[in-house]
Amino acid sequence: MSVEEPVRARAATQESGHSRQLERPPAPEPLRVPVVDTHCHLDIHDGDVGADWLGVDAAVERASAVGVTRIVQVGCDLPSARWSVQAAESHPAVVATVALHPNEAPRIEAEGGRGALEDAYAEIRRLAEHPRVRAIGETGLDFFRTGEDGRAVQEESFRRHISWAKELAKPVVIHDRDAHEDVIRVLEDEGAPEHVVFHCFSGDAAMARYCAERGWYLSFAGTVSFKNASALREAVAAAPLQRLLVETDAPYLTPMPYRGRPNASYLVPLTVRAMAAAAGVEEDTLSQALSDNSEHVFGPW
Predict the structure, then answer these.
(1) How much is the average pLDDT of 8-24?
(2) 119-133 per-position pLDDT tens digit
(3) Disulfide engineering: 98 pairs with which of 6, 26, 75, 238, CB 3.0-4.6 Å?
């Protein structure tokens, strides 16, 4: 499969009104200091295939035009992990991460049994060795979509991913949904890798300070710009600039004022500006910190 073809297509769910959902927002004013989109799903098209899917080349070009010059493509199941490696091999502006998403490991075992899950673990571990794969993730815990019956497998998967990150000396990228205390418990029980990234950070200011004190990175998505997200803005303000990252989680979590429409890396400047306002710093100052932090975590492109 070409990396210019989407692996998956998912229906948009952020707002009603299908035509509005597929209307791509205009490009924002470019950033003066380039930054990295540290968490993107270029392989997922939010809507009907072909409706307005950018493709990797166009996505990279459009992002670069507004100062988002590098992208971390996240593989979170076997098809997307394979695709992510291919995309990173083919596009100099893209590096990859690979993992089984927290909801993926319980699904694989439920549908295919323990053997299928072990095979999936083995392939992710093999792909993780690729030099263009710069982190293990997204892994973690999700108590929103996975019920009690799947949580033991979910935690087992999280622990395995942490061990791979330490073996390979690569960061771990964490998905944490409704599971703050348990994510931290597992991290500290296993012993955290050198670099830990909380993808789409959803904690409060106290959690931000706790993570920052341990040298962990907090990556903020478009949710930080939402009107009801004052706790996230307080978390940005509580964390030192040296622990902040920015992401899209595209095609999801589109920043204001375009919430509900397809997200993409070229909209990162909107999130950067929301973060700068929350942190009380100049846009260029934050952008430089975000760029430096991204390269410190994921390495040079």
Answers:
(1) 52
(2) 999 999 999 999 999
(3) 75
